[in-house]
Amino acid sequence: MKICLITPAPTYSRKGNRVTALRWARLLRELGHRVVIAEEYHGERCDVLVALHARRSHAAMVRFRHEYPELPLILALTGTDLYGDIHTDTSAQESLEMADRFVLLQPAGIEELSEHLRAKARVIYQSVTAPPGVFSPKKNVFELCVLGHLRPVKDPFRAAMAARQLPPSSRIQVVHVGGALTDDMKAEADAEASSNPRYRWLGELPRWRALRVLARSRVLVLTSQMEGGANAVSEAIACAVPVISSRISGSIGLLGEDYPGYFPVGDTQALTDLLLRVETDAAFYEALKTWCERLKPTFDPERERQSWECLLQDLG
């Protein structure tokens, strides 16, 4: 069948929505479907429309539903949708009602949906293929990776702030990969990197290079205030790198309610304490690593491919 995949992220973007759209397109083509990725929908015929983002893809969904009321419409719900727009924005709420199925990246997000909508939800975990080769951590530092664009919702400098409070004996260095989306954010990152010897900002890198930086790191640190189901967590687990995360629904859905590597959102001191513990307490570090290794099959590409096949068969 022909599948039209609508994403608000432009062609050359490295944002999570674009990464997700490209991966889904590849998996769907492997299943034998024709896939077209576009930022907008102009009324062209397709057998299924898959729209990312309830608010920003609303116009595309309205047009598709008007042109082809009998054809299936799938809405992929982002973090901005689940933990923001669907509770406050009329167009996002209309998108929910129009869709035949929702795709969520982790199961905890289902709780954000109204009761009458939950039956339409399907969870499809984001898969990752780890980069080839063996990546050994640096010996002279305890390298932590922050992987994500510099946006307020990511709380991007929280790890740097926590690292400032570490004792002189600590070997921790925070390496941040991600583009600055505003001049102010770039200026803040540059200033932090020049004044904080424990913080390096590498800027935006091609995904293959970003994954290599992650794969050699001891830990991924996710400080976001909100996530639908962070690509970075899937990538870390695929690369056998344990995770420290803010305690948010999007991470709980991926890592589990009882995962020991959480800290309260925005709590610099709690993050500092957790970073120091992961560096100095070998048993704690191994517990995080073992937990994440057990989750690795969840993010296998074959599982994601089969999940999409089941969803399309479900729609008939």
Give the helix/strand layout.
Elements: E1 2-6, H1 16-30, E2 34-38, E3 48-52, H2 58-67, E4 73-76, H3 79-88, H4 90-98, E5 101-104, E6 121-123, E7 142-147, H5 158-164, E8 172-177, H6 183-195, E9 199-203, H7 207-216, E10 219-222, H8 231-238, E11 243-246, H9 249-255, E12 262-263, H10 268-280, H11 282-295, H12 301-314
Structural class of the helix and strand makeup? alpha/beta
Biggest sheet details? 6 strands, parallel
How many H/I helices?
12
What name does the CATH topology of the largest domain carry?
Rossmann fold
Number of strands: 12
What order do the SSEs take from the amino end to the carboxyl end, as H and E? EHEEHEHHEEEHEHEHEHEHEHHH
Count of discrete domains: 2
Q: From the 3D coordinates, which CATH architecture of the largest domain would you assign?
A: 3-Layer(aba) Sandwich
Terminal CA distance reads 12 Å
Class of the largest domain, according to the CATH hierarchy? Alpha Beta
Uncertain regions: pLDDT < 50 for 5+ in a row?
A: none
Strand content: 15-25%
Reading side by side through the largest sheet, how are the strands ordered?
A: 2-1-3-4-5-6
The gross shape turns out to be elongated
- In CATH, what is the homologous superfamily of the largest domain? Glycogen Phosphorylase B
Helix content: 40-55%
Work out the radius of gyration: 20 Å
**What is the average of the pLDDT values?**
95
